[in-house]
Amino acid sequence: MQIANRTKNLGTEGAFEVLAKARALEAQGQNIIHLEIGEPDFDTPLYIRDAAKKALDTGYTHYLPSAGFQDLRLAIAEHISSTRNVPVNFDEVVITPGAKPILNFVLYSTINEGDEVINPNPAYPIYESLINFVGAKPVPYILKEEKGFRFDLDEVKSLVTKKTKMIILNTPHNPTGGILTESDLQGVADLAIKHDLMIFVDEIYDRIIYDGFKHKSILALPGMKERTILLNGFSKTYAMTGWRLGYGIMPKDLAMLVAKMQINCTSHATTFAQVAGVTGLRGPQDDVNKMVSEFWKRRDIIVDGLNKIPGVKCHKPLGAFYVFPNIKGTGTDSRMLADLIMKGGVACLPGTAFGSAGEGYLRFSYANSIPNIEEALRRVEKVIRSL
Ligand SMILES: Cc1ncc(COP(=O)(O)O)c(C=O)c1O
Question: Which residues of 363-378 are buried (b: 16+ CB within 10 A; e: fewer)?
Fold first, then answer.
């Protein structure tokens, strides 16, 4: 079989690879606590599951228009309009199987070979993978631990060239849990307007925020709606990772093109999942609130526990369900330490799975029970003390 040259540029997600390694160890009888994969450990709320069952029983088993089920496009438009305080119309919404295809379809639809896209580092690895895959150049800006894993605006400004087309933002952030402030967003918005750039903002963790902070969206800033693509979805908020239900908000012309990309690729997201998504958005949000308060408790436990381990320094994140402890004091590099910790019974990711700026860090997902997190902390401490 001959393989196309472009595949050389395709990256991957370390979490899936580490999960496979952990499963292999489990098959040999080892007990592993899973703190590698980024998915809520909760069940999808019952009222959403019931809505999907009802949808299946009432015939929602056929094709739909590619951009999505009309009622869900309307519900998403209403939800984003009211939470971002900016009017969004249903024809500016495209629904996809999981949120990930939004990134893929939007980059293919807006970025030419040779263009430059400014992207965070460390970051969700699919950004850099897909920027490379469409033949563009990723230009990383560094998220700094001392700034709560926010960027330095002067650094971002210094990266803009004549070839820059887009800046990617992610808030709350995977893998660090950092969130951007309104003034960070305003700084990037001014830059985008000055240089006529697009903004791609990934807000998939927008509902998972702690300490009374409020999610701020660049979409709401003056002059930004016409140049912003917002990615969001049901995976994290409603513990619906396996349902594959996500969406993008973007100007109508681009939405039509992205829907056309989808016709060429997946046709649309699963019909009965979309019907249940309407119930998810319009129904009671108590389950989401309960999940977030449980994550909040776990965050405090894991941060405090990691900070008690010699050589480890863990910043307390404000959002998502990840911690990104600095392990430079252990004298071991990220990959080697993650491997040792796996052998010690805990699966986690090396910071380098999220880019070069992740060296010296590990990522733990705390989407696991408190007893498991406490046991994982004991195991990690034992490994690090034995170095
Ligand atoms: C930052 C970020 N964006 C997007 C996604 C993709 O979400 P989905 O599973 O809905 O495709 C993830 C999933 O881990 C993520 O962490």
Answer: bbbbbbeeebbebbbe
Query: Which candidate, 188, 208, 200, 196, places its Cα nearest to that of 230?
Result: 200
Cis check: omega of the bond before 125, within 30 degrees of 0: no
Residue 14: is its pLDDT beyond 90? no
Pocket test for ligand 1, best of 18, 127, 174 (most atoms within 8 A of CB): 174
pLDDT in tens, 204-244: 999 999 999 999 999 999 999 999 999 999 999 999 999 99
Q: Give dist(CA 384, CA 331) in Å, integer.
A: 10
Pocket of ligand 1 contains residue 317 by CB under 6 Å: no
Domains, the chain, with CATH or none: 5-44+286-385 (3.90.1150.10), 61-282 (3.40.640.10)
**Of all atoms in ligand 1, which is nearest to the CA of residue 103?**
4
Q: Is the CB of 124 within 6 Å of ligand 1? A: yes
d(CA 98, CA 42): 18
CA of 130 to the centre of ligand 1 (A): 14
> Whole-prediction pTM value?
0.97
CA–centroid distance, residue 183 to ligand 1 (Å): 25
Share of the chain above pLDDT 90, in %: 96
pLDDT digits (tens, 9 = 90+) for 316-328: 999 999 999 999 9
Decide whether any atom of ligand 1 lies within 6 Å of the 175 Cβ. Answer: no
Confidence of residue 15 (pLDDT cuts 50, 70, 90): confident
Distance from residue 99's CA to the centre of ligand 1 (Å): 6
Q: How far is the CA of 58 from the centre of ligand 1 (A)?
A: 30
Q: Is the CB of 235 under 6 A from ligand 1?
A: yes
Is 16's pLDDT higher than 90? no
* Chain centroid offset of residue 261 CA: 22
Whether the pLDDT of residue 261 is over 90: the answer is: yes
